[in-house]
Structure formats: C-alpha cells, structure tokens
C-alpha cells in the first residue's frame, strides 16, 4: 500500500517506501465480520480453494494517519465516523525492528502503547463494540519486518502475538513487500490460526499482479497460488492493491485477470487509494470507481468488496446521505453495493 510513513517526530511523509529510521512505515488496519471459511473446498482449474464467507461485502478502512497533518500537536482524526460505513478498520502499520535500535515492535515509529495512540485505541474499541472488526496491518513498504521473521521467527513472532492479544484485535493483514520465504509465510499463518482460532481474520495484501500471474507474483520466494494451495483454508481474503502502478480500478480488467487465474471473487477485495494527493498513481474518481464496483458485484455475485488507503487522508467525495469528512469516501463505496442508491 502507498505508505504515509510517520517519521521519528510523528510528521507524515507521503511516500511509497519506509521512513529514514529503517522502521517499516505504514498502516492502520480494519477488521471484518466474517470468520474463516468452513464451507466446501471447490476446485477451479488445478487450484483448490476454500472461499471465505461472502454474505457481507467488506468495506475495509486502512487507518494510519491519526492527526490532520501527522504532527502530534494537530487535530486528532478519529475513526469513529466509520461506524455504519466500514466493517473492518485496519490499524497501520506494525513493524518489527532491530531491538538494539528501536522497540522490537512499533506502530509506525512508536511503541503501540505510546500516549499518542491512546485516543485511537479508545475509539477502535468503541467501533468494535458496535460490530466493526479491528485488525493490525503488519509490514508495508518499509523493509525489515518479514526479513526478520524469516531470520528468527522464535524471537519476532511473540511480540506480534502479544500485541494482538493486548489490544484485543480481531485479525491481522500481512502486507508483504519484501522477500519472504514460502515456508515462513506458511508457518506464520498456521501459527496465527493455532493461537487465535477460527474467528480470527487472516488476510494478505498482495499486488493484483501477484494474484494474476501464473507464476505466483513478483516476490521471488513467495508464490500466492502455492500459498493458497497449502494454507488457503486459513486465509480469509486478499486485499489486492490496485494502485501505485500495481493495477487499476478504472474498469474491471485487472480484477478479472485475478479471477481468470482461479482465485475466487469471494476472497479478493479490491483496494483503492482514497485521494488524488497521496503521491501514488492510480486514484480513481468516485463515479468511475462506483461503476467498476457495481459491475464487479454484478459479474461476480460473491465479490468480496472494497478497501481504501487511507482513512484520515480520504477525500470527501460529496456522496449524498453520508457523513462529511473522510468517512464519506467509505460510505460512497458502501453505496456501490446497495441497491437504489444515488
């Protein structure tokens, strides 16, 4: 995902890479109402897949930037208006670091327990009480997190597990944008499912090309088709990033290519950027995006839904019948899946 990576002073740099502290910069995650699929395994071509439940089309809000400019003294941007608009909020981004230099686990550039995050954790808990799912986004554009898991899983997995428990999060989104071995990816997914059970959400955030490519994607050691074959029943869905030159939602063609590669629409959420000013190619104006999403929902009745990076910087697209401010974008997306809306 395009990262709005806070630097060490909490300022936000709109970049597509990590911050200067070598702390993977990124992310706020959103949770979802669904549990791991327990239905029949279906075979499409040569790839056996167990789709996640599709009764609800997801609207996922990535939440990273917590203030109007990212500076500590600026106005806090609460996720509270997402109630009734999104069903998952992803708190972004968690990173694993060299403990000799930084806390072993950070949320952006600070420990998750930092005082600056107290209002956010309070409001996320309130959203959970209203039925939204809250998840953690792990990784992102800044390097290091998944390399460290590969090198020393026994050291780096427990801080992730403990944070998920401590903050009562409903799931995790694995945003892998660096080399990561298939074996460790499987180990991580299996361990998460063992530790947190069937109702815990496990999602991944690949580029669309990684799902559409017959060879499994652009990460040399991680093939998403193989991953789906081996641990797909433990993965709820994929938040495919259709932006930053990784695909487009101006029409359905890039999404169609994923389905043609035998991933079911019930497991592929279409993620878009939410503002044209995010220093990331691929912004789609809302009328065009709504047309694409409605077409996908018609073409694929089990279509898993949409996501937006990222909440606090989202454009108010003036959608009728919606709250003003950044939640307006997510409400407009929700209307794409609702009959007889403007």
Describe the model:
This protein is an alpha/beta fold and 342 residues long. It has a single domain, classed as TIM Barrel, CATH 3.20.20. The strands form three sheets. Strands 6-7-9-10-11-12-13-14 form an eight-stranded parallel β-barrel, surrounded by five helices. Strands 1-2 form a two-stranded antiparallel sheet. β10, α4 and β11 form a beta-alpha-beta unit. α2 packs across α3. The longest helix has 15 residues. The N terminus is likely disordered.
Describe, in short, the structure shown.
With 342 residues, the protein is α/β, with parallel strands linked by helices. Helices cover 27% and strands 19% of the residues.
Unreliable stretches (pLDDT < 50, length at least 5) are 2-54
Average pLDDT confidence is 84
Name the CATH homologous superfamily: Glycosidases
| Radius of gyration, CA atoms, in whole angstroms | 18 Å
The end-to-end span amounts to 29 Å
Q: What's the arrangement of strands in the largest beta sheet?
A: 6-7-9-10-11-12-13-14
Fraction of helical residues: 25-40%
General shape: globular
The succession of helices and strands, N to C, reads EEEEEEEEHEHHEHEHHEHEHEH
Structural class computed from helices and strand pairing: alpha/beta
The first-level CATH class name: Alpha Beta
Main pleated-sheet profile: 8 strands, parallel, barrel
CATH architecture: Alpha-Beta Barrel
- Number of domain modules: 1
The total count of helices amounts to 9
